[in-house]
Amino acid sequence: MSGTVESAGTEAACRRPDRQGGTAPPEAPTGQLRPARGALLDAALRVFTERGYTDAGLAEIAARSGIRVGSLFQHYGGKRGLYLALWEEFREEQERRTAAALASLRGRGVEDPVAVFLAGARAYLEGVWDNRPLVRLLDQDDGPAGFDALRRQWDRAWVRRNARLLKVDERQRTGRVRVIVLTTVIGGAARELGDCADGTEAREIVDEVCGILGHLTARPG
């Protein structure tokens, strides 16, 4: 699960599913694409959540979205494309959310790397709670072929960006391990948030995790 990031564009290996392999359909005007794609993604999330990725059917997704199966293939190329588009949409939203939090902090003149990192971590975890149905789906061991490899690539990129936020030299093993530990704490908290009973419990977890991260990043003395 990707986390505290500064918007850095989309990694080459994680491009939009309808552009992989050079098979994307001709682009239509954005205003025409957005409603259909949004309806398909909403329907796909509901069906994937209820049935799991493996047992989800394209006919049911199309029926729930009110859009023909042929249009589904045109926009996303099939079930795998829908799943990866949901993942990418979540990542992009999280990037926007954390980037806004960092910009707000820096706009107030705060440049301390730890403070900036903690602000990004909080924004990311709050985004996890807001998107918990999708987070629970992505955390299941039931995704399309190759998804785990894509997620590992993104997680490595996430560690690199966190290292830049904290101004840690990744070339040094101790610095790299430190950032990996911090990133892993955020990822583990994200999984717990997906199972929270209510907003009060979720806020308690976010506060607790940010306290732990603050302790782990505190400078000696």
Helicity level:
55-70%
Return residue spans where pLDDT drops below 50 for at least 5 consecutive residues.
5-32
Overall shape: elongated
Q: What would CATH call the class? A: Mainly Alpha
Structural class: mainly alpha
Number of domains: 1
What is the CATH topology? Tetracycline Repressor, domain 2
How far apart lie the N and C ends?
Answer: 33 Å
Radius of gyration, Cα only, in angstroms?
Answer: 19 Å
- CATH superfamily membership: Tetracycline Repressor, domain 2
Proportion of residues in extended strands: under 5%
Largest sheet: none
Please specify the SSE layout and strand pairing.
Elements: H1 30-51, H2 58-65, H3 69-76, H4 79-107, H5 113-130, H6 132-138, H7 147-166, H8 173-193, H9 199-217
Question: Can you give a write-up of this model?
Answer:
Residues 34-94 form the HTH tetR-type domain. InterPro entries: Homeodomain-like_sf, HTH-type_TetR-like_transc_reg, HTH_TetR. Keywords: DNA-binding, Transcription, Transcription regulation. By secondary structure, the chain is mainly alpha-helical. It has one domain: Orthogonal Bundle (Tetracycline Repressor, domain 2), CATH 1.10.357. The protein is built from 9 helices and no strands. The relative contact order is 0.15.
Summarize the structure.
This protein is mainly α. The chain has nine helices and no strands.
Key features?
221 residues, mainly alpha, Tetracycline Repressor, domain 2, 9 helices, 0% strand, elongated, HTH-type_TetR-like_transc_reg, HTH_TetR, transcription, DNA-binding
